[in-house]
Amino acid sequence: MDFRKHLLKILLLLFGLQLSAYAQEFSTAGFYQTDPKVREAINFNVGWRFIKQDVEGAEAIDFDDSNWKVVNLPDGMELLPLNASGGVNYQGPSWYRKHFTPNEQLKGKKVMIHFEGIMGKSKIWINGQLVRENFGSYYPIHVDLSDYLKFGEENVIAVRPDNSNDHSYPPGKPQETLDFTYFGGIYRDVWLITHNDVYVTHPLAVDKVAGGGVFVHFDDLTEESVKVFVDVDIANEGKAKDLQVHLSLKDKAGNEVAKLKEKVNISSDDSEQVKMSFTVKNPKLWSPNHPHLHQLYVTIKDKKGNVLDTFRNRVGIRTIELKGPEGLFLNGKKYPKLLGANRHQDFAHIGHALPNNLHYRDALKLRQVGMNVIRSAHYIQDPAFMDACDELGMFLVAAIPGWQYWNKKEPIFQERMLKDVRNMVRLERNRPSILLWEVVPNETHFPEEYAIKATQFTKEEYPYPGKYTVTDARTHRSKAQKYFDVLYANDQVEAHKQKSIFKREWGDFVDNWVDHNSVSRVAKQWGEAPQVKQAMHYFKEEWMEDGELQEWPSMTMIYGASESLFGATLWHSFDHQRGYHPDPFWGGIMDAYRQPKFSYYLFKSLLPTSGLEDVPHVDAEPFVYIAHLMTPFSPKDVVVFTNCDEVKLTMYGEEIGIKKSTDPNSPVPRVPVVFTDVFKKIDARNKNKKGYGKIDQKWVEGAVMKAEGIIDGEVVTEHSRWPAGRKRRLLLKVDDMGITPQADGSDITTVVAYLVDAGGAIKRLSDEYVRFTVEGEGELIGGVNNEINPQKLLWGEAVALVKSSTNPGKVKVRAEVLKDGINAPSFAEIEFNTVGPKHQLHYTELPQKEQEYIPTPLLVNESEEMKKLRVELQEVKKQLQEYKLNEVGKQQDTFIE
Question: Are 753 and 797 in contact (CB under 8 A)?
């Protein structure tokens, strides 16, 4: 443990300071902006008119949309209850329209609009002219607007998304029979990209095999040097030109480690793919624990030296090799098994419409529990999440859309599926995080013809070492297995002993017993016993059947498998919504708000205690966590999760014992520490009936349960529990993970309210309703109609989603119980700040703030004197409440005696 780093954190917190925030970055249409005068990415998310229905003629430039709602993107068309499974979301056409006046300075430039994702099939018009029709929900749409724009006057972009069921494009399966939800809308970012008529193309805007944009790959990698190959596709829409292509590669510290210049002549209205290569000496290599990213600067100049295009890409120098029974080799060296989870992108209430910071926090929350591989179930993820995986050192299994469906009747379905294969590789080929290409629809009976073409197209798009395709290793696909590099299975496959194995989904215990009941599927509010059961199931699940011992795919099974199985992903990281089933999937180690369950700490026990200094926001520190609440309904056994060597458990000041967190009979590096039959509710009652609420040292020593984490014989961390007492107050936490909210009109910050006792213990068994209000440069998402505000406490928690305005500044969040009273818990307030966006926002109008409910005691027009008197009265009421509560406590003590 780095004690100096830990001490610095404590000192900074004591003096009200913060550690300097790591500046995470998000790509824009596949690049990072350097000089906006040459190539600029303009944030086009703010100020779209929207209506959730079909409207005839809404593509026309003069259509009257004045009564439509104004929204900011990403937008999912609607807000939904926490439990939104079973197809409760809207399916059908909707419309978005944006009015804008292009800057006169853009005359003569190329102007592209880049949609990161529109759900379903969609049509896009500019000034009444149809410019693109698209079929598919998860890939960018890159459209040239240059010839359609009118400068000096208002322009209108109209978009008609339609998320209705449609068998003709992937995933193809109707939502009501699908194990995830479509949701809808323009649910990812939109960018306006401007550059000159000589420019580096976008790989999805040009149909070039292994071409378009920038393509980087590596060869001859050692610790001493690596050969870097860079292909740059340049378009020239002007006169023939002699050009210079400049490359500069810089390391994390900004040191230039290589540079290169190449001359090329491109004819008028033509393009050229320029192939370049150079050697980097003593390269900083990318790996999960050391995710070094280099900056590749690409600059196009004319023969006079004028810059015509410039931007940068992030490059992670690494090679992967899968050697079947020998396992995974990263940068030429054997690498340990990878362990992680699948990820669906939907979030509580907002569906798929997550802003970039929420995507980043998703990746960060998983990385902070030690995960180093993610499977993108069952579609390609938002670029912000992919950027985070590159940055945080998380391998990724990239998947095309699909789930248990193949359209045999319409050939267009396979054509579009194969187009998705090419698009996925073109889009993500440069990412160091990409581990496998899942180019088949999940759990689907696809024809052999498709297997041949899908693997062939992948090889064509990535014709270099390090490309690995993957499919299921099931009997009905035995003919197709030979075409793929990797198989999904529990362990080595007898018929394919030389193939590498990956476990795509493990942990979920589905046998269709009474319609998908499973020990893995636990809603957090069900309590500690179900949560403990879920965690222990994920660790190891065995049972007897017909006289034979059966083992379900678990953490124990994964670590105990042969070297052929080089990685595995849990189903699933977060609770998420489903189409065909009315219950959400509750098997996540975190809920839909990304708040942890006990199983979260099972995974965190695999986090090392040092060695992650190069991973942003991730501290490899010792921890210990007691998965027990000391309630009258708590189990007798006490389970503790830790990444320390040993755990010492003390109860009521008496030592229970010391146990190791390792087991010579278990292949898992850390095991749950279980102290059996040590908790008795009568002891908790007797030890706490007097003096409770003082929270002084004497009481703490005599009343709590304490776990101490031990490394090399010394206590390095601890965690305490006590029986939660009377509800005293609400407590608020801004769950920003150290990622500063952006004032871009789209960012969402999670604020969690906890109901706690006098000492801060959370009252997990409470179910009051909590009402949130927001002041300043933010707005509360949702209200009564969508069951968001007020909100019932679940497991002692209520969560507010706060959307940033377009002005940087202070945001104040207040939480209070719905019904006031002399003995009601005290309200809570917390503040946080937003910072200005990194890109220019282009808009002409803003959404109106939703009308918030004003609590009765808060008078809208009250004077400063009245406000002062009201505050004083509240303080008097609070003191009176404390007095009464203490008197009640004394009476109870007397009665017990």
Answer: yes
Instruction: Spell 460-490 as b/e; 16+ CB within 10 A means b.
Output: ebbeeeebbbbbbbeeebeebbebbbbbbbb
**Position 874 pLDDT exceeds 70:** no
| CATH architecture of residue range(s) 624-721 | Sandwich (2.60)
| Residue-wise pLDDT tens digits, 588-630 | 999 999 999 999 999 999 999 999 999 999 989 999 999 999 9
Classify domain 729-858 at the CATH class level: mainly beta
> What span, in angstroms and rounded, lies between the C-alpha atoms of 825 and 729?
4
Which structure tokens are listed for 476?
A: 């009905």
CATH architecture of residue range(s) 320-505+563-578: Alpha-Beta Barrel (3.20)
Tokens, residue 266 = 């491109």
Which residue's entry shows tokens 């795509």? 504
CATH class of 214-315: mainly beta
Domain topology for 40-194: Jelly Rolls (2.60.120)
The pLDDT mean for the chain works out to 90
For residue 855, whether the previous peptide bond is cis, meaning omega lies within 30 degrees of 0, is no
Q: Are 760 and 727 in contact (CB under 8 A)?
A: no
Return phi, psi of residue 118, to 5°. Answer: -125, 125
What span, in angstroms and rounded, lies between the C-alpha atoms of 97 and 159?
6
Other CB atoms within 10 A of residue 852 CB = 15
Instruction: Note whether 214-315 and 729-858 share their fold.
Output: yes
pLDDT of 89-133, one tens digit each? 999 999 999 999 998 889 999 999 999 999 999 999 999 999 999
Residue where the block lists tokens 């509010």: 525
Task: Say if pTM beats, i.e. exceeds, 0.90.
Answer: yes
